[in-house]
Specification:
This protein has 794 residues and is mainly beta. The chain has seven domains: 18-121, Immunoglobulin-like (Sandwich), CATH 2.60.40.60; 134-230, Immunoglobulin-like; 238-338, Sandwich (Immunoglobulin-like); 346-442, Immunoglobulin-like (Sandwich), CATH 2.60.40.60; 450-552, Sandwich (Immunoglobulin-like), CATH 2.60.40; 560-682, Cadherins (Immunoglobulin-like, Sandwich), CATH 2.60.40.60; 691-784, no CATH class. Strand 50 (637-646) and strand 51 (653-663) form a beta hairpin. The termini are far apart.
């Protein structure tokens, strides 16, 4: 306090000295402390300048508006200069050592301008302040101890000792504060590093910096020192795991996130900024499958995955920081590929034998099939099969299948097979594949030629021209090639003590049968040959068929009259009584014909008569009867020319002349031959032989018809359809008919040696008719049973 009083006395003395000097010089000067209250007394100008106070108003005593007029005012009453408002020295003069405010006093009458100045003295009215409330400071952790860091200085608008004179910081084991004054008198604070920093242990510090001035009372200001420990790249990146493991399905689409790796770096800033990449230990093929996002460490799929190609990947990942020099960390990523059922079974047919003979035994090897599925587990387990209805089977061994025959083959039934081989896996969903194995069954000579019929009936009209083709046999062989090439021949046989080769020949290539001679129905009616068909296989096979050659009759013989034939060149004679009435039976003309059928059917007619109206003859019976009663006027001898004509084409005929004598005396005894044929005369040796032959033939023919009907009835009972087709009828009396009521009428004959019924093509059917006068003759006639048919049928 004593020091303060001395300073005030010195200040007052200085002011008085200055005022005295100014009075002498004509300029007045006052001093005041800044921040004095409004209307504070500065000085008495009138008194100090020796002015008459009563004249101040008259002379318009005033303070110039410029300069000090803003802060000061003068009183006209007493000439006192006082403050108009508080004066802030720092605002007016800043940091200058001497702060003065000039002013002018104006007087009129006479005009007088007096100059003065106001010295504003500094007061410790400002505390030290820092530009910012916090002072950021960055210090690298690599800085050595003893390093100094200049701090921001505090500002104090006061001057002299009222300004900043010293600094202090809060307590810290790492830092201390050193202050020094520059040549310009400014106090500078420096922060001294007392202990090495480790950003990873403590990355920042907060210290309180205090700036103190030298004023009374002392003022101070504070600021926060925010020390950031700058990182030094002294740590390498470290991954969270040394080995990362993941799995992904092989059908994962491109761009799918597999996993994310992460490394930590205890450093910060660029030293902690990491870039991820594949290291040089990573296989080049990985780059086409996976990609690594450098900024995030995300591993995504880049290309297609294929479990069958690679089921796992090993990726060596590195993380590199941005420090200088850069540090690197490593980790390994194991990615397992999960199999999906994306591969169909592959079928490989090896050692293929696509041709197999039809006589191959069961179990014959055909081909080996290899089935592979590149998937794994159930996805790679395969099942195989072929169609169930084929004569083949599969023999499995691991993933190989042997295709073998299950039974003997028959090329004639099936000449080739398209075997559908199917393979499917057990995946979900199951995948399958198919292939077709073509098998050709090769032919062996296991079939003999076969005729279309075991027995053939060949009809040949008699009198045929030698060398004429009469029939063609045909045999088929279902084999192939030379095994089906058929040749024909006639087996050695004899007929009528002659080889059949003298009668017929066969074309070995096409089976056409030729007649080598002209046949005569009257000589023989049928014979048979055996035709053999042989193939060209090795060994060759053969079969034979029987050919029944049936000679068809032609009308090449004229009827022969066997009764009333002329004797010794004279005409036949008959005697009738004059009393013969209408319808009287005169006689019967009998004829025979070595032909048969229609060619032996006779028609009788009178071609010439003495009296055409007296006699008539049965057209088919040959009976001559009177047409009216004999009259006395009739000639006693009547001559009839009778023609017997067969039904052949063209028809042939014979005639006979009959002399009929009318006996005038009714009492005369008629010769026995008048109403009957004289046995001794009529039945001559030739006639007797012919009659016996004709009668036997008729009886045999009748028996044949009866037997045929019996056989047919038996067949009809066995075969209802055939039973409904033909029917036979008999009528005994004047007429005994055997009728076949089929739509197409055929004549049925049994040829000796054929052991079968023969339908005569194109020949009308006939029934057997017995003459009512069977006592006179047993001659047999045929009567049509229905309209003739032109259909040829064997």
């Amino acid at each position: 306090m004593a020091c303060v009083r001395r300073l005030n006395l010195i200040l007052i003395a200085s002011i008085f000295i200055l005022c005295a000097l100014e009075k002498i010089s004509g300029q007045i000067s006052y001093s005041i402390q800044e921040e004095m209250e409004e209307t504070s007394f500065v000085g008495n100008i009138a008194e100090d300048l020796g002015l008459n106070i009563q004249q101040l108003s008259t002379r318009k005593f005033r303070l110039s508006a410029d300069d000090g007029g803003r802060y000061m005012k003068v009183s006209l009453k007493n000439g006192v200069l006082s403050t108009r408002e508080k004066i802030d020295r720092e605002r007016l003069c800043g940091q200058t050592d001497r702060c003065t405010m000039p002013f002018e006093i104006i007087l009129e009458n006479p005009l007088e301008v007096l100059h003065g100045e106001l010295v504003i003295l500094d007061a410790n009215d400002n505390s030290p302040t820092f530009r910012d409330s916090s002072i950021p400071l960055e210090i690298s952790e690599a800085v050595s101890t003893g390093a100094r860091f200049r701090l921001e200085s505090a500002e104090d608008p006061d001057i002299g000792r009222n300004t900043v004179v010293d600094y202090a910081i809060s307590s810290s084991e790492y830092f201390s504060l050193k202050s020094r004054r520059t040549e310009g008198g400014i106090v500078i604070a420096e922060l001294l590093l007392e202990k090495s920093l480790d950003r990873e242990l403590q990355s920042s510090f907060q210290l309180v910096l205090t700036a103190m001035d030298g004023g009374t009372p002392q003022r101070s200001g504070t600021a926060q020192i925010l020390i950031t420990v700058l990182d030094f790249n002294d740590n390498s990146p470290v991954f969270e795991h040394d080995v990362y493991r993941s799995s992904i399905r092989e059908n994962t689409p491109r761009g799918t996130l597999v996993m994310k790796v992460k490394a930590n770096d205890l450093d910060e800033g660029l030293n902690a900024e990491l870039t991820y990449s594949f290291s040089g230990l990573t296989s080049q093929r990985v780059h086409g499958v996976f990609s690594l996002i450098p900024e995030t460490g995300e591993i995504v799929t880049e290309g297609p995955l294929d479990f069958e190609e690679t089921n796992s990947y090993s990726l060596d990942i590195q993380a590199v920081d941005h420090g200088s020099p850069a540090n690197t960390g490593h980790a390994n990523v194991q990615i397992k590929i999960i199999d999906v059922n994306d591969n169909t079974p592959e079928i490989k047919v090896t050692s293929m034998t696509n041709q197999i003979p039809e006589n191959a035994p069961a179990g014959t090897y055909i081909t080996l099939i290899n089935v592979i599925d590149r998937d794994s587990g159930k996805n790679g387990q395969v099942r195989c099969e072929i169609q169930k209805n084929l004569p083949f089977t599969l023999q499995a061994s691991s993933n190989h299948y042997k295709l073998v025959t299950r039974e003997r083959l028959d090329r004639e039934s099936v000449s080739g097979y398209a075997i559908h081989f199917s393979a499917w896996d057990l995946g979900s969903p199951s995948l399958s594949t198919n292939t077709i194995i073509h098998i050709v069954v090769t032919d062996v000579n296991d079939n003999a030629p076969r005729f279309s019929e075991l027995s053939y009936n060949v009809y040949v009209a008699e009198n045929n021209a030698p060398g004429t083709s009469i029939f063609t046999v045909s045999a088929s062989d279902p084999d192939l090639g030379q095994n089906s090439s058929v040749s024909y021949s006639i087996l050695d046989d004899h007929f009528q003590n002659l080889p059949v080769s003298t009668y017929l020949s066969v074309n070995s290539m096409n089976g056409t049968i030729y007649a080598l001679r002209s046949f005569d129905y009257e000589e023989f009616k049928t014979f048979q040959i055996h035709v053999q068909a042989r193939d060209a296989g090795v060994p060759s096979l053969s079969s034979s068929a029987t050919v029944h050659v049936i000679i068809l009759d032609q009308n090449d013989n004229a009827p022969v009259i066997v009764s009333h034939s002329a004797e010794s060149g004279s005409a036949a004679a008959e005697i009738i009584p004059l009393s013969a009435g209408q319808g009287y039976f005169v006689t019967r003309i009998m004829a025979t014909d070595v032909d048969s059928g229609q060619n032996a059917r006779f028609f009788y007619q009178i071609v010439k008569a003495t009296d055409p109206n007296l006699f008539t003859i049965g057209q088919t019976s040959g009976e001559i009867r009177t047409t009216r009663k004999i009259m006395e006027g009739d000639l006693s001898t009547q001559t009839l020319v009778i023609m017997v004509k067969d039904n052949g084409q063209p028809n042939l005929s014979s005639t006979v002349t009959l002399h009929i004598t009318i006996l005038q005396n009714s009492t005369e005894t008629l010769p026995e031959s008048s109403n009957s044929v004289n046995t001794s005369e009529y039945l001559s040796d030739l006639n007797l032989h012919l009659l016996i032959i004709f009668s036997c033939t008729s009886i045999v023919f009748l028996l044949i018809i009866i037997v045929l009907i019996g056989i047919k009835c038996k067949q009809d009972r066995n075969n209802p359809q055939e039973y409904m087709s033909p029917s036979y009828c008999y009528k005994h009396g004047d007429m005994l008919d055997t009728c076949n009521r089929r739509s197409a009428m055929e004549e049925t004959l049994r040829y000796p040696g054929t052991e079968q019924l023969v339908r005569m093509p194109g020949v009308p059917q006939y029934s057997v008719r017995l003459s009512p006068e069977s006592a006179q003759s047993d001659f047999l006639f045929l009567k049509p049973c229905g309209p003739p048919t032109s259909q040829n049928q064997s």
